Amino acid sequence: MDQVTGADNNITSAAYYLSRTRDLTDLAKDIDNATLSQLNVSDINRNLSVRQKEINEWSNHNKLDTLYFLQILFISLTLIGIMAFLLSFNLISQSLFTFVSYVIGILALVILLLRWRFTKVNRDSRYWHKGRFPKQTKEVGAASCPSSS
Asked: Is the Cβ–Cβ distance between 83 and 101 less than 8 Å?
């Protein structure tokens, strides 16, 4: 009878250990799943923050480019204003004022058009500082270099 009781206690203990092991395995799987979920969220947030940084950088450099042109415009209008002041005191002729004003206006317009064209044609739409270049069809390298022998 003692051996049957001992065997029964061993079976009960083994069942308890199996149950406890199953609980711990389930707990470990739950922790792994929670960790994987947090890693996925972390990857998504990292990608979002990297893209937001790119957007902010592009926006800031676009504003700097706009500020550059506005400075050109301000300098142009200041020069025209000085010329108008000199014209009002008859220190310069009307034809000189008109000529210089047109030259300054045309220069400002050319600068605006060159900046606009550069942004449209050459500037990368995702990275402000990178340029777009035409794709090369041939491999550039040893084939295009003359041999030194």
From this structure: yes
Query: Helices 94-117 and 2-88: crossing angle, nearest 10°?
Result: 160
Q: How many structural domains compose the chain?
A: 1
pLDDT of residue 141: 55
Is residue 133, in this structure, part of any structural domain at all?
A: no
d(CA 23, CA 13): 15
How far is it, in rounded angstroms, from Cα 77 to Cα 109? 12
Q: Answer whether residue 138 is part of any domain.
A: no
* Domain span at 101: 2-122
Q: Does residue 143 fall inside a structural domain?
A: no
pTM score over 0.90: no
Length of the chain: 149
